[in-house]
Design goal:
11 helices; globular; 28% helix; 20% strand; eight-stranded mixed beta sheet; alpha/beta; single chain; binds zinc ion
C-alpha cells in the first residue's frame, strides 16, 4: 500500500479533513492522483496510532500462548501501531542479543512496531543488573526496562538501575508488589471478599508502599521512573504527591482496572485472576479520575495471553492475567468517553502521545500532519458489539470481556502507511 486517501475524517480539535498517505508518510491531500485507494472516513474520528507500553507477546518461549505475529495482529485490531514487548519471555530479554532478536521478530512478523523492553535484573532474579547499557546502545535501542511479573524489591538495585539509565534517557518501569506484604500466592484484593472466599489477600499497601519508596529513589537519582498497572487509590495519592514535587514519575492504568471490580471474583472464575488484582469500586472511581486529571499518564493493556492448560484451574492455582489489546480502546470509550471524563483529544494523549513519549519512540504519537509517519487509527464513536472471545487474533482465549456489550470503535489501523486492520475485510 503506497497510496491511500482517507476521506473526511474528524481530526479531533482540527475539524474534518482528508489525509493522503504515500510511502509511509502523510503528504498534501491536494497531490492525490486518480490511482489512489480511497477509504471513506465520513463520521469517523482519526487518532494517532495507539501505543501499548505493556504487552506480553510470549515469544520466544511460549508460542502456544501467543506469538509476535498473533499478538501484534491482535494489537492492530485494537488500533495499536506500536507495542512494548515485556521482557519475561524464555529466554528473558536481559541481553543486547535477546533484545535485538525480539526486534527482529517484530520486523519480520509484526503488524505493529515491536519495541523490546529490557529486563532490569539478569533472569528477572532481582539480584544483579542486566546489560542495561548494551541493550540501550544495541540496534534495538532499548529505553524501557522492567522486571514486570516481579517487583524490583531491592531498593539498592532500584537506585543503581535508575542511576544507570539516566545516561541514555531510559526509564525503569516498576511492577509494584511488596513481596512480604503480597507474596506469589496473593491473588485477591485483601478485604471482605478475600476473607469470604478464603483466597490469599493482596493489600493495596503492598503496591502503594513500593511506589512511595521508588518515587523517593527517583528524586534522589533525578532519574525516570514509571509505575506499571496502578490498581489502587493509595498509589494514586503517592503519585500525585510525587508529581507535585516535580519528581520524574509517570504511571499507567490497565483497562480492566478501569471497569472490573473485586465482585467479579465472587464466582471463583479464574478469567478474573490478574496481578495486581481487581479492586473494589471506590478504587476504580479514583483510577478513572486520576486518568482524567493526568495523575495517571497512560492506558496500558498488560495483555497477558495464557494457554488453556495454564488458565483453566481452580482460582488459587490458575495463571495471572487477561487479554487486553483488542478491547482496550472499547473499555476506555465505555468508561472514560461516555462519562465525559476524557475527550477524544485526551484519549490520543493517554493512549498514543504519552506512551510514545515515555518510551521515547520518535515515530509514534505524532500529529496527523504532512511529513509525519502515517500511523493512524480510524474510530467509529457510536458502534457497539457483544464481545466474542473466539473472534480474536490472539492464540489465547482468556478474555474477561466475553459476552459483554461494549463499544466497537476500531474501523481501520494504518501503521507506517500499511493497512494492518480494516473492519469487514
Ligand atoms: Zn506486572
Amino acid at each position: 500500500m503506497t497510496n491511500l486517501l482517507i476521506r473526511g475524517a474528524d481530526l479531533v480539535g482540527r475539524g474534518r479533513s482528508d489525509l493522503l498517505i504515500r510511502n509511509g508518510r502523510f503528504v498534501d491531500p491536494a497531490e492525490a492522483g486518480t490511482d489512489v485507494d480511497r477509504l471513506d472516513a465520513d463520521g469517523l474520528v482519526a487518532l494517532p496510532g495507539l501505543v501499548d507500553l505493556h504487552t506480553h507477546l510470549r515469544e520466544p518461549g511460549r508460542e502456544d500462548a501467543e506469538t509476535v505475529q498473533s499478538g501484534t495482529l491482535a494489537a492492530a485490531r485494537g488500533g495499536f501501531t506500536a507495542v512494548l514487548a515485556m521482557a519475561n519471555t524464555t529466554p528473558v530479554t536481559d541481553t543486547a542479543e535477546a533484545a535485538v532478536h525480539v526486534a527482529a521478530l517484530g520486523a519480520r512478523d509484526g503488524y505493529t512496531q515491536v519495541v523490546p523492553v529490557g529486563a532490569v535484573s539478569k533472569g528477572l532474579d532481582g539480584v544483579e543488573l542486566a546489560e542495561l547499557g548494551l541493550m540501550a546502545r544495541s540496534s534495538a535501542r532499548v529505553r524501557v526496562f522492567s522486571d514486570d511479573g516481579h517487583c524490583l524489591s531491592d531498593a539498592r538495585l532500584m537506585r543503581r538501575a535508575l542511576e544507570y539509565v539516566r545516561a541514555f534517557d531510559g526509564v525503569i518501569a516498576q511492577h509494584a508488589q511488596d513481596p512480604q506484604l503480597a507474596g506469589v500466592s496473593a491473588c485477591c484484593h485483601e478485604g471482605e471478599i478475600s476473607g469470604k472466599l478464603g483466597l490469599p489477600g493482596w493489600p493495596a499497601a503492598a503496591e502503594a508502599s513500593v511506589v512511595a519508596r521508588d518515587v523517593q529513589i527517583a528524586e534522589l537519582t533525578r532519574s525516570r521512573l514509571h509505575i506499571c498497572h496502578v490498581s489502587c487509590a493509595e498509589t494514586v495519592d503517592v503519585i500525585r504527591w510525587a508529581k507535585q514535587r516535580d519528581i520524574n514519575v509517570t504511571a499507567e492504568v490497565a483497562p480492566h482496572h478501569l471497569m472490573l471490580t473485586t465482585n467479579e471474583v465472587l464466582g471463583y472464575d479464574p478469567i478474573y485472576k490478574v496481578n495486581p488484582p481487581l479492586r473494589p469500586s471506590e478504587h476504580v472511581e479514583v483510577l478513572r479520575e486520576a486518568l482524567a486529571d493526568g495523575t495517571i499518564d497512560a492506558v496500558a493493556t498488560d495483555h497477558a495471553p495464557h494457554a488453556r492448560h495454564d488458565k483453566d484451574h481452580a482460582f488459587a492455582e490458575a495463571a495471572f492475567g487477561m487479554l487486553g489489546l483488542e478491547t482496550a480502546l472499547a473499555v476506555v470509550v465505555e468508561t472514560m468517553i461516555k462519562s465525559d471524563l476524557l475527550s477524544w483529544t485526551d484519549v490520543a494523549k493517554r493512549m498514543s502521545i504519552m506512551p510514545a513519549h515515555i518510551a521515547r519512540l520518535a515515530d509514534q504519537g505524532r500529529p496527523l500532519a504532512v511529513g509525519e509517519p502515517a500511523n493512524v487509527v480510524l474510530v467509529d464513536p457510536a458502534a457497539r458489539q457483544v464481545i466474542d472471545r473466539n473472534d480474536s487474533a490472539s492464540l489465547s482465549r482468556n478474555n474477561p470481556w466475553h459476552g459483554r456489550e461494549l463499544p466497537d470503535p476500531v474501523v481501520a489501523t494504518i501503521w507506517a502507511g500499511r493497512v494492518t486492520f480494516r473492519k469487514g475485510r
